[in-house]
Give the backbone structure.
Amino acid sequence: MTRDYSRFFPNLSTNTGSEPRSVLDTLGWQPFFAQQISSEEIEGTPPVRVTKVHRSGLHVQGAEGKFVLPPRSDATVGDWIMYNEALPNSSRVLARKSLYQRRAPGTDRQMQLIAANIDTAFIVTSCNQDFNIARLERYIALALEAEVTPVIVLTKADLSDDAGHYVETAETISDRVAVVVLDARGDEPEAKLAPWCKPKQTLAFLGSSGVGKSTLVNTLAGTDVTTQGIREDDSKGRHTTTHRQLHLLKNGCTVLDTPGMRELQITGATSGVSELFEDLTELSTQCKFSDCKHESEPGCRVLAAVARGEVDASRLQRWTKLVAEDRFHSASLQERKSKDKSLGKLVRAEQKRKRNRK
Ligand SMILES: Nc1nc2c(ncn2[C@@H]2O[C@H](COP(=O)(O)OP(=O)(O)OP(=O)(O)O)[C@@H](O)[C@H]2O)c(=O)[nH]1
Ligand SMILES: [Zn+2]
């Protein structure tokens, strides 16, 4: 079957905007990807998106249907691949808009790809005891590191007497991160998340268990998509029930839901942490000592800003902790052995400080 792919190239497009959405559009195909390929390439090796990573192979979907590619470690859920039917191993992974990755546990500690090409990460927490500013900052730093736009979503506003307080606190995190408060059930999500839930956009919902991630996805989808299991054969021919990792919503956006994203550590998130705490990072470059720990050193510009009331002392502590954690997790195993001690020291100092405050 020969398909007309011309409309997937912005410069060749004859799309008037009134045509029904194509399969590629509903999978999140964007000009960013089209720009990387020639029209000959798209005819010979059509683009497909990775919808699920399984030990037995990469499940992909494109205009021609669904396929399974041989397993490979350089592609992950959300990736776009130019599918080479004759030589599947030669299929080309397109450059990514964004990438979540983590350092593997175990000895080799290689970087593992978790999820690619997410546009917006909704960082979900509730207007209750789940709300934790340090955890929100951690998710935001990881999103910034991955080059994904973070948005804070506060659910269960309907169950709280003081939703406004949670909004105000969340808004102190960063001027650049939007905060949305809602009831995850009903009509609110569609209207309030509309600025980010546009056709061809890929979204992710992150946060602790029970905060309303599935509720939000199902509300936006208009149907229960998150609990639908799919029976399929695993590599041994057994039937197993697995869950989709890529959901297609009715308004044309795609939701990526992969287990790896729920247990993200701060690893290699140095630039995400610096971006979120831009003011502190900038101040710290002006401290008298280049290795200043901003504890009690003379000439510390960060402590001076705290003393002047320009920087919140607890925010400084959260930043120091994230920087230490990032260094620890990003270090090699050898470096870690010696750093284990210093992180332990940091944690003990923090505990002591808390005790003294009481
Ligand atoms: N009243 C109210 N209930 C909510 C809201 N959001 C979620 N819930 C309820 O909270 C419970 C947990 O919601 P889920 O959507 O399953 O939470 P989750 O984040 O997907 O949880 P995991 O699947 O464990 O990660 C469900 O009973 C929801 O109906 C909300 O905004 N208001
Ligand atoms: Zn300092």
Observations:
- The chain is about 30% helix and 20% strand.
- Residues 9-18 have pLDDT under 50 and may be disordered.
- Residues 277-357 form a domain with the Ribonucleotide Reductase Protein R1; domain 1 fold (CATH 1.10.40).
